């Protein structure tokens, strides 16, 4: 299967689920169209992974991951067989290039492969390569093209777990791009109400934070930072003698000793706010921009009580936790109360599910 950056194969808009495979769990989202150009959240669910089944984005145990997907499919009740998956950004090489706009489709493919060989430190036989035409370049004679390449075995591992679970992989995306697609839908709506706003989005994952800054619909800055919610989980494991799974559950439910907030949570929130502040400063010093109008927090770590407040206080910038499902209709089986707490952690899975409508 080719590394497919943005295309769905097969008939138009067949049922498709987004599966976000992390080191700790797998999240599932299925969307449908509800008319008037709006979407409906049909189902969402997650299932924890056995320890070590996925490490740093690499699938170490295909059978365990496939079994977890099967449990998740049963739990969610979906009948969909097509799936969109994503690779960690660290496993994918992306490069924006410029090619003559007059190239035929066949000539474009040949030129892309020739250009790609300059940027990829592997034999072309060892990689899955795809590209997406972004649009015309500023000079109008060229076009912007985004290359994406990953080692074949990494792509094939994800395809293999899907097939072992009875699914067909239709899309292979990049985690940070999928999360961005989910959030971009909301930013576009807000930006239409006031042009020239600078939005900073922080996707706070388990081990990494993806930062991207959007101005008038364009990503003008992005970076990845080694910081995430697993640091707090590990502190809980060490301090209270819990297993990883127990720590995750108790962190989510707030079922921890009275000392937790002062000894562990508050220092972690301060550290998170410092990481956000540093990222904003890097943005100011490395670009012509001198302001950010709004910070959006998403990812599983974003729901921690007090995080948005402390980030706003330290940065002096309006800050909000954002749900990728905002503005969507909810299917009768979706628990609205539970969704409010869960939603920020589903940005990647939601972005993948949105590929159904590309």
TrEMBL record:
<dbReference type="InterPro" id="IPR005883">
    <property type="entry name" value="PilM"/>
</dbReference>
<dbReference type="InterPro" id="IPR003494">
    <property type="entry name" value="SHS2_FtsA"/>
</dbReference>
<dbReference type="InterPro" id="IPR050696">
    <property type="entry name" value="FtsA/MreB"/>
</dbReference>
<feature type="domain" description="SHS2">
    <location>
        <begin position="16"/>
        <end position="183"/>
    </location>
</feature>
<protein>
    <submittedName>
        <fullName>Fimbrial assembly protein</fullName>
    </submittedName>
</protein>
<dbReference type="Pfam" id="PF11104">
    <property type="entry name" value="PilM_2"/>
</dbReference>
<dbReference type="InterPro" id="IPR043129">
    <property type="entry name" value="ATPase_NBD"/>
</dbReference>
């Amino acid at each position: 299967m080719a590394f497919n950056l943005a295309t769905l194969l097969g008939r138009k808009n067949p049922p498709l689920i987004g599966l976000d495979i992390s080191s700790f769990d797998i999240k599932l989202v299925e969307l449908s169209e509800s008319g008037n150009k709006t979407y409906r959240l049909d189902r969402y669910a997650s299932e924890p992974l056995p320890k070590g089944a996925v490490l740093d984005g690499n699938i170490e145990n295909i059978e365990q991951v496939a079994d977890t997907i099967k449990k998740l499919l049963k739990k969610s009740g979906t009948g969909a067989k097509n799936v969109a998956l994503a690779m960690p950004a660290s496993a994918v090489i992306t490069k924006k290039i410029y090619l003559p706009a007059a190239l035929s489709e066949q000539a474009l493919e040949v030129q892309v492969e020739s250009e790609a060989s300059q940027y990829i430190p592997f034999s072309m036989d060892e990689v899955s390569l795809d590209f997406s035409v972004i649009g015309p370049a500023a000079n109008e004679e060229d076009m912007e093209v985004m290359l994406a390449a990953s080692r074949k075995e990494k792509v094939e591992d994800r395809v293999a777990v899907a097939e072992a679970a009875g699914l067909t992989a239709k899309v292979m995306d990049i985690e940070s791009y999928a999360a961005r697609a989910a959030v971009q839908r909301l930013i576009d709506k807000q930006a239409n109400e006031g042009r020239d706003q600078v939005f900073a989005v922080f996707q706070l994952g388990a081990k990494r934070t993806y930062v991207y800054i959007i101005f008038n619909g364009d990503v003008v800055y992005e970076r990845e930072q080694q910081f995430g919610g697993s640091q707090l989980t590990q502190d809980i494991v060490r301090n209270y003698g819990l297993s990883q799974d127990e720590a995750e559950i108790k962190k989510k439910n707030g079922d921890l000793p009275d000392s937790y907030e002062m000894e562990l949570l508050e220092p972690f929130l301060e550290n998170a706010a410092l990481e956000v502040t540093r990222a904003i400063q890097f943005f100011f010093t490395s670009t012509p921009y001198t302001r950010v109008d709004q910070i959006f927090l998403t990812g599983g770590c974003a729901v921690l009580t007090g995080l948005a407040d402390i980030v706003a206080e330290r940065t002096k910038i309006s800050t909000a936790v954002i749900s990728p499902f905002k503005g969507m209709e909810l299917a009768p089986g979706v628990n609205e109360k539970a969704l409010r707490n869960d939603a920020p952690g589903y940005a990647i899975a939601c972005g993948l599910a949105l590929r159904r409508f590309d």
